[in-house]
Amino acid sequence: MKKANKKKNICSITKHWPSVNDMKKDLFINLDDQTITKLYNKGKIAKQHIRTIKNSDKKYLCINIKRKTFQVHRLFFYWKYGFLPSLVDHIDNNSLNNNIENLRELDKSGNSFNSYKRKSAKPPTSKHKGVSYRPNRKKPWFSRICLNDKTHNIGYFLFEDDAGQAYNNKIRELGLEGICPLNDTHQERSRKINQFDPLPKEMNHIKNKFLNLEFMADLK
Hints:
Layout: H1 13-16, H2 20-24, E1 27-30, E2 35-38, E3 44-45, E4 49-52, E5 59-65, E6 68-71, H3 72-81, E7 88-90, E8 103-105, H4 108-113, E9 131-133, E10 141-147, E11 150-157, H5 160-173, H6 186-194, H7 204-219
């Protein structure tokens, strides 16, 4: 009888190599060209493969070392800094970009913030993160933020973009703008436009017309 194939699990780096010096006995990591050399195997370059995390849309580059699987971005962080946090975050939210400057230590709440609206088994009720639709209320769009196991209920709003913008405003209030992608609301787009040099007075009617068209398009 054939044995069932067991799926390889991601292995603990620090359990396998208690220190970076221990790792250097087996590997050499070039952070510039992002290659990993197997010193124990005639100096062969380790092949990196993409692996999707179960129950998630996240994909990570992994390598196999002595029949064990490791995530490349965590190996890079450990090699560079000599310690390994529980979570290593990709700053640009691209989980395949393992440039060492794109990696940082982050706690679980921060890691969840540094992501756009995630896929779920049920269809989302809103295009914005932190926003849900409550059809039984006069103002049906509800906005909230969960941070460190604490829920910040922001409020109910008549329009979806208003709820999404309230989420953005709360993110700024909590000082999380640097790690959390903001919702793409018409207010946010207007804010970006206003950051540029002011238009001449004779051009303001064109700007206002553009913003009104965007707002009406969001209502459709």
